[in-house]
Write a structure and sequence with these properties.
The complex is a heterodimer.
Chain A (H helix, E strand, L loop, with lengths): L3 H42 L2 H35 L1 H35 L6 H30 L4 E4 L4 E4 L2 H5 L2 H32 L3 H24 L10 H11 L11 E8 L4 E8 L2 H7 L9 H26 L5 H10 L3 H6 L12 H9 L5 H30 L7 H9 L3 H15 L4 E3 L3 E2 H4 L5 H32 L19 H5 L5
Chain B lengths: L3 H36 L3 H11 L3 H18 L1 H10 L1 H21 L5 H31 L3 E3 L5 E3 L9 H25 L2 H30 L4 E5 L16 E6 L3 H5 L5 H19 L2 H23 L2 E3 L9 E2 L7 H29 L5 H6 L6
Classes of the chains: A mainly alpha, B mainly alpha.
């Protein structure tokens, strides 16, 4: 049995590297589309300013993309290094979308990104535009496949346990592909990426407008970002993945944790706006509730119930007891007793095998678990409520603030008076961190809310880790944190430097810092930049 | 469409294709980065080197990432046992590879000399370390890796990082290092001119000699008895479902030569490796970049096939518990998954080859110092 500390350390490492990777991914998802839109306008109108926009925003995109690639390398191999048993147990299903992601998406994105940066003089306008679109399509396809993989972790459809190979095996590829949880996750996640790209362009353009420089460039960027951003934030909210929360036990449990709903309420349930979830006592202190709202959002109906945590714990306890039987029968099957009778009995309780494995944390043999251990395992089948409750609310609040911002920005841009609304421009600049806050908290809800499972109802996290020593994992965490931090500082430094310099960094002779007379303090720094 | 046994064979070939694809394409990126301090004496010259690979390295690296994904999907047990076992070796490769995306993109963003020199060292390490470690890893596959499975198929590794650096492991590392360095050298001969091309030529000459020596040396080591290979001895159903512990394996395959004795045609692989090395040496000596590049490419194909043929059907032999060794027959995914993955691969791999070639064609031509000096901002 692997030690608890190795499991916790491996979780820490995975959470850190994944969240770190996702600082760069959403910007890539959004920027590639924004670049494709800007370049499309260039090709259609022939106005060079749109080419400059594509190239300048492309430069900032490139700084971000480099770290996206760097941190992505870790993700492709980390399942093997730190989650070896997971890789064996579900590789038959989980590996396929990852491999297809490589063949279908990464190759497309990474092969053409070189031509995006270096092919301007070698390709015709239409060829280059096609290249830019292919990069955008490639990055979005990679999101599709990785979310199919992730969706399967939340709701493992189309697969079955095979006792001879001691692992899950694929039974239906189309079920895996059209997993409803994966579908909503994909739409929600890529749209949040578009929002990130839009806020990025909107905030930096607003800053130029506040400074009164490169006005024509900034206004055009502002207009594209506000329109694209408004459409995207509406998709994020309306097609938010709340709608996927009725499907599968893990999602149901996650929903109950998000809402800190301890007891099943009569439909439609109230939404807890504020409160302090108290997991030990199974209640929420100082709860402020809005009637009906949660039931309507979560179930899209007024008569369906949202199951409360206490009921889920009771349900899980029953499944854990079933799972003990399943584990016992599995032992007999692997031990050589392959009689029809044992096989039938096993198939009857197979779906609860994963619940039986939850007991491995408390007793290695599973079948000898006592009452107290079973009760504890059932209680531990619920994720930590407070952090999920709060991160969810932070995510939603960030989303609402961005909706408001995009609506105002779009309205102002349509009426062509955004340069006079300094409050709006300032608000846009200060909103820059919002999409990152929303996406990071969003992943926290999705993945922390999946605990204690790595594959919902199938494989607990504490069984998934590799047989490593705690020293190994501590070593790699220290090395990763150190290296990533240095890279992040360098990335931020370059990003700020080039964002401040603006389109003058293209050296076309058309922009602010190249018009000698208007120079300011930043001008002095300019020759040092390439 | 295909029976299980055929599919298992096809996936052995496909994993090989992905690894060879990686070595053939990203191999010259690694090689060029490795040679950069030697062939590029000034900042402009180093920028020439970087810009020969600038538009392509990212796409090339995807061969490695896809090989990782394909290993996960087709041979999950290998993916699990190899990467968790060779934990620090893999992390070392990853950390070295981390420097490349940022190095290529960030280096030219500032003109500061120390800034650029730091990235140059980073890129050099990013070229040397992965090339060396990949070879060491292959050497250790031939030696056997100290891992085993328990009855629930959980793998555990009973060794440490330093044990990988045995004499034979290091020799295999030199094979890989010189081979990819040679590939980078011949690539730079084709894509540059003047002093850089001249130095690349010299590097390619020396590296092809080193490759030939180390490659033949490793072969001699196997032949003359340093290493004991494995063989499956139990009656074995190649079409059966995965259960690696069900077979019996003995150490009765002296020097991993059994396959070469049973199927003499496979000797083509080591011969191709030697021929490729010689051709590269010839091309480099004659100053013919294309010939040298053809030679280094053939050397890569030959060398990787040599190792693959020797090990077959093993892909990850265990030195600790021979029965735990992973083979083409019992480390694999289910019939269904292999079939779906095959369909995906037969659609996408040809497509990838087509558009990759188109990109190379569009960016082809010599990169010159004059061209670099004319474009201080648009290029890396």
């Amino acid at each position: 049995m692997i030690s608890e500390s190795v499991v916790d350390l491996s979780r820490l490492q995975f959470a850190m590297t994944a969240l770190y990777h996702f600082l760069f991914v959403p910007l890539t998802l959004g920027m590639t589309f924004l670049l494709a839109i800007m370049e499309s306008v260039y090709v259609m109108t022939g106005k060079p300013i749109y080419k400059d926009m594509t190239q300048f925003w492309g430069k900032l995109f490139g700084i971000n993309f480099a770290l996206g690639v760097t941190t992505g390398l870790t993700m492709e191999f980390q399942f093997g290094t730190n989650w070896a048993y997971y890789s064996h147990y579900v590789g038959d299903i989980f590996g396929a979308p990852l491999a297809i992601e490589g063949m279908m998406a990464f190759f497309l994105e990474s092969t053409f990104i070189g031509l995006f940066f270096f092919g301007w003089d070698r390709l015709t306008r239409v060829q280059h535009l096609s290249v830019t679109w292919l990069v955008a399509i490639g990055s979005n396809l990679s999101a599709l496949w990785i979310l199919i993989a992730n969706g399967w972790m939340q709701n493992p459809v189309g697969a079955e346990f095979n006792f001879t190979t001691m692992r899950m095996e694929l039974t239906s590829f189309s079920d895996l592909l059209f997993n409803p949880v994966a579908q909503v996750k994909f739409v929600h996640t890529v749209a949040s990426g578009y929002v990130t790209g839009a806020i990025f362009v909107l905030a930096i353009s607003s800053w130029y407008l506040l400074k009164g420089r490169d006005i024509a460039f900034a206004r055009r960027s502002f207009a594209i970002a506000s329109a694209f951003g408004l459409a995207s934030i509406l998709s994020v909210i309306v097609l938010g993945d709340e709608s996927g929360y009725e499907i599968g036990d893990v999602q149901k449990t996650k929903l109950a944790a998000i809402e800190a709903e301890w007891d099943t309420e009569p439909a439609p349930a109230a939404f807890t706006l504020f409160g302090l979830p108290n997991q030990a006592e199974q209640r929420t202190d100082y709860a402020v509730k809005i009637p009906y709202v949660m039931g309507i959002i979560a179930t899209r109906s007024v008569d369906k119930q949202v199951t409360g945590i206490k009921d889920l714990v009771r349900e899980h306890e029953g499944r854990i007891r079933n799972g003990m039987t399943a584990y016992d029968l599995l032992g007999q099957l692997r031990g050589g007793d392959k009689s029809e009778q044992t096989l039938d009995a096993f198939n009857g309780v197979k779906k609860d095998l994963g619940y039986g494995l939850l007991l491995k944390k408390y007793t290695d043999k599973v079948v000898d678990a006592n009452e107290q251990q079973i009760k504890q395992a059932a209680l531990d089948s619920i994720p930590q409520v407070a952090s999920i409750f709060w991160t969810f609310r932070v995510m939603v609040l960030s989303g609402m603030l961005m909706l408001l911002l995009f609506a105002c920005a779009f309205w102002a841009s349509a009426r062509k008076n955004e340069t006079r609304k300094r409050w709006l421009l300032k608000w846009a600049v200060f909103s820059l961190p919002l999409p990152w806050i929303a996406t990071q908290t969003g992943w926290w809800v999705a993945e922390h809310g999946r605990q204690p499972w790595s594959i919902g109802e199938v494989l607990p996290v504490h069984l998934s880790a590799s047989t490593l020593s705690a020293a190994d994992v501590i070593g790699s965490i220290v090395a990763l944190v150190g290296f990533y931090t240095v890279l992040l500082i360098i990335e931020m430094y370059l990003m700020i430097k080039f964002a401040r310099l603006g389109p003058s960094s293209l050296h076309t002779g058309r922009y602010h810092f190249e018009q000698g007379a208007q120079g300011n303090a930043a001008d002095a720094r300019q020759p040092a930049l390439a | 469409m295909f029976d299980y046994e055929t599919l298992k064979m096809i996936w052995w070939v496909l994993v090989g294709v992905l690894l060879i694809g990686f070595a053939l394409t990203d191999g010259f990126d690694l090689g060029a980065a490795m040679l950069m301090p030697y062939v590029g004496r000034s900042d402009t010259e180093r920028r020439v080197v970087i810009n020969t690979i600038a538009p392509h390295w990212d796409g090339n690296q995807v061969w490695l990432i896809t090989a990782g994904g394909a290993l996960f999907a087709a041979w999950p047990l290998v993916y699990a046992a190899a990467f968790s076992g060779l934990y620090w070796a893999l992390l070392l490769v990853l950390f070295a590879l981390f420097v490349r995306p940022v190095g290529f993109d960030y280096r030219s963003k500032l003109e500061n000399t120390r800034w650029r020199q730091s990235w140059d060292w980073g890129l050099f390490v990013g070229g040397v370390v992965p090339s060396l470690v990949f070879g060491v890893a292959f050497g250790n596959l031939l030696l056997g890796v100290p891992f085993q499975f328990d009855e629930t198929l959980r793998s555990s590794y009973h060794g440490n990082f330093w044990q990988l650096l045995s004499p034979f492991g290091l020799l295999a590392g030199v094979v890989s290092l010189s081979m990819l360095g040679l590939h980078g050298g011949s690539w730079l001969m084709m894509r540059t001119e003047g002093a850089i091309a001249r130095r690349s030529r010299r590097a390619a000459q020396w590296l092809s000699l080193l490759f030939l020596l180390s490659f033949i040396g490793a072969g001699a080591w196997l032949l003359l008895g340093g290493i004991q290979g494995l063989a499956i001895t139990s009656a074995f159903d190649a079409g059966a479902a995965l259960n690696p512990l069900a077979k019996t394996v003995t150490a009765s395959n002296h020097g991993w030569l059994a396959n070469y004795q049973q199927h003499p045609l496979t000797v083509i692989a080591p011969l191709l490796g030697i021929f490729g090395g010689l051709l590269a040496l010839l091309g480099a000596s004659a100053g013919q970049g294309r010939t040298a590049f053809l030679g280094s490419s053939l050397a890569i194909v030959g060398a990787l096939c040599t190792a693959g043929f020797a090990l077959f059907p093993f892909v990850m032999p265990s030195s600790l518990d021979p029965a735990s060794s992973l083979t083409v027959w019992d480390a694999v995914s289910s019939h269904k998954t292999l079939m779906i993955m095959l369909i995906a691969a037969s659609i996408f791999v040809p497509l990838i080859l087509c558009y990759t070639l188109w990109c190379y064609a569009k960016m082809w031509g010599k990169v010159t110092t004059a061209h670099i000096d004319r474009n201080p901002h648009g290029l890396y």
